[in-house]
Here is the input.
Amino acid sequence: MISIIDVIGPSMIGPSSSHTLGAMRISKFVYNLFNSTPDNATFYLHGSFKDTYIGHGTGLALVAGLCGMATDDPSVSKADEISKRSGFNYEFKAIDLGDVHPNTVKIVATKDNLSHEVIGSSVGGGRIKIISIDSISCNITGELPTLVIENDDVPGALESIVRVISLNSVNIAQVSLSRISKGSKIANMILELDDELDNSIIENLRMLKIVKSMIYVKSLNYAS
Amino acid sequence: MNVKFFNDLVEISEKTGEDLHKVILNWEMLDTGYSSEKLIENTSKLLKVMEEEYASKKDKAFKTLVNLTGTNGKKMYNYVQNAFVGEKVFKAATIAVTMAENNASMGRIVACPTAGSSGVMPGVLLVLEEYGIPRDRLVLSLIVAGAIGKIIATRASLSGSEAGCQAEIGSATAMAAGAAVYATYGSAKQVSNAAALSLKSLMGLVCDPVGGFVEVPCVKRNATGATLALLFCDMAKSGVESVIPLDEVIDAMMSVGRSLPESLRETGKGGIAITPTARRLIKGLNDKFKISGD
Here is the structure.
């Protein structure tokens, strides 16, 4: 249900909600994956993003998002200078990602030994859809806190994870499951939650035997 | 509270004697769970962004992303004393253009309802504020504008790529006209009439940005919106009514939007975007914006 506050806002950096704000939200999602600015990133621009990266400030918005800036921070327009000072290296490349939304970007970023690859689309009015995280297909908006889990593909895996979350009275909004390969016995799980998780719950999840690795991504906080 | 039409809100207000903004706040709480206090507080923050941005940029020239605009607000600012249309209207148009140029240069704006049309609402609200309308009243008027926009968003569209510029500048004008009526203590019915007159007069307006960039003709159309909003506010308050009610005008706008060819819906492939001058300007820009292939 669309809210009045979304109609008369948000406060944002211009010039375009889909080419600037949406782009920034996608890269902010990647920033939240690392919980900090990565060392290096490559932005692969698809479709109209390829054409708007200067004229609509899409490029600056993508850089600003990975620098962790707020989506209405006036220094977004100086993101290139700011990133240089902080030692964040990036490049833009054109790509054809096939049958995806025209405003789509693939971001490959690394920090120390950690690397993430995210594909996201800006679908209008500043709303985004993350369609892939580290090669796991998904369909998430970034509006909700998200858990990306790699787990043993054994019976009861989902149940044991859900139990930890629901015992802490957090509601699960959406779950997507996928299996990397039957032979490897490793599967992936992406859960969108209605509330942020406390650190203690995150640690409890990490301690589960079936959890191989886990990333917690904070909400993009659309309303603020 | 199942509200599908703006007129539902007007009727509830008329029947119960409750102020229109209170009816809207109730509706919003039932519809989205947004409390009245929170909505008022966040709306006030949006108005603050408009106030701060204009105050800090009112006499400045902008370096916009593709440099097709950027100095118009400043020119108008220096001309206001000479304006034949009068100070209030010309100031509203000046603020609208300045805020739209701020948008085009990656400044902070309020997408009300979109980034491309973000000059219209501050144009109207900041002039009302300068001429003595209390700030609290402007916040409530912005909420009333939001209700008009929300009905347009649910029944039709606020997107230029879906329904043309009529859905962006047209909707912004309808919202601002309604806000101006409410701010100046007009009735709920007059709010609805001012919005309907606005949308009717901009019906069919196409989205034809040169190069696809939010500069030409977007920046100056914000002046159109702010000017018309004030005109239709006064017309509605003088007693002029829209023969066709707002909700029907909204539906008609969407039907016109659906029949617009894709070339006139934000693709930069029709209207003024393909004039000889536009083509020449774009040719110069294109070489500058190429990136390496994959």
In short: Chain B has a mean pLDDT of 95.
